[in-house]
What does this fold into?
Amino acid sequence: MYPSEYLYSREHEWVRVEDDICVLGITEFAQQELGEVVFVELPEVGQVFDTNDEIGTIESVKAVAEVFTPVAGEILEINEAVTDDPELLNEDPHGEGWLLKVRFSSAADLKALMNAEQYEEFVKSGDA
Amino acid sequence: MGSENLERTPLYACHVDLGARLVDFAGWEMPVQYAGVIEEHRAVRTAAGLFDVSHMGEVRVRGAGAESFLQRLTPNDVSKLVPGRAHYSGLLTDQGTYVDDLLIYRLAADDFLVVVNASNAPRDFEWIASRANGEAEVTNECDRWALIALQGPKAKEILEPLAPGASAIRYYGFQQGTVDGRPALISRTGYTGEDGFELYVDPEHAAPLWRRLIDAGASPAGLGARDTLRLEAAMALYGHEIDETTTPWEAGLDWVVKLDKGDFAGRDALVAQKAAGVPRRLVGFEVEGRGIARQGHAVLSGGAPVGAVTSGTWSPTFEKALGLAYVPPELAAPGTPLTLDVRGKALAARVVATPFYKRAK
It folds into this structure.
């Protein structure tokens, strides 16, 4: 269910590391909790954030979820496909539904994240 | 969340079988969605949806004095209700504000069924019973009725074979008959803005009837879709558009109030508020900026809060964010631009006439 090469935050974001860039998205658990996504607000390319800053929002019919960045860094790219068609987040949250790419400034941020096995445990534990 | 403390309707097992997502609503474990809010909403608008609303409350009021008792307790004109008709009304405080909104069904000259919101059921029963003063017999019938709502343009063709003659029931009329051979009060009412029926049955008949209607083509629909549907139809929800701080005038429910019928609870306060000028108005709005406004978000004028959103959502029919809000009378005209404070960001919106959605006749 959860790709083994990704890292995961307690806020239900996933991160895929490609050299000094992180691709960021929300997890299957998060999209299920949200329901059908109707609106996505993402930051602008060039914006710089600290670890755990709020960088956007995802809205379903019934709920709003804030998106936090697990890594500090600069926004390099946002996924226009998702802002045009928010349902992508429900259909393919780990793939086509990626949200943005960050050039991250500190590898230490990654150490605070969970691997796939730990994230699955976290979700199952009911503390999620 | 401790689901051991939540109540369950007779349809609980049906919801589990259908894979519903269940949530706590007013102390009941209820389905918020099955296939998804948007899909269920669209099924009601284009075909037929089925809602379990058995958690709603029922109060029976009987006796020779029942009509005059209800007449002084509620703002609408009970003397105009003939057997086989229902009307929309409320319970008001002496300040003319809402304790609850409700439906009154006249079963016979001296026999009424009052149907109230689940969230207020125990309180409403106490309110009504404590005011009867021997004028009428007031009985709590919450456990006696299960309630299933069948709503949508295909509702009547689904129901007719199971309840011959049902399609001839007029809007806000009802019949005491049978559905699929089981006794039922069949009412041409609903909370979606579509044609449809509300079926009051004995709790032990609820699950077989539910399954029968699903087999006949109705799609199960949960509380999520119930909310988006009623909001598009601009129907009030207690705790949002109406509560103990709001009068029918403010909520745009003038038509419920019959000042000329005689005295009733809250009448003096309503007369006074009309004379002094109604201080705020409920309006519909469409969001023009990017975002969704929701309950509690402030309406700003000159940077200061002057009102608040009572309900807001993304509308599956119109594919845009819309909602209802209280504003000062000078901002109430359709076309007026509004600024909404959504989590610290200013969101542009505009007042529009309601209802947002009206079904084709």
Helices of chain A lie at 28-34, 80-84, 88-91, 108-111, 116-125. The longest helix of chain A spans residues 116-125. The mean pLDDT of chain A is 93. Chain A touches chain B at residues 35-36, 38-39, 41, 57, 59-62, 64 (CB under 8 Å).
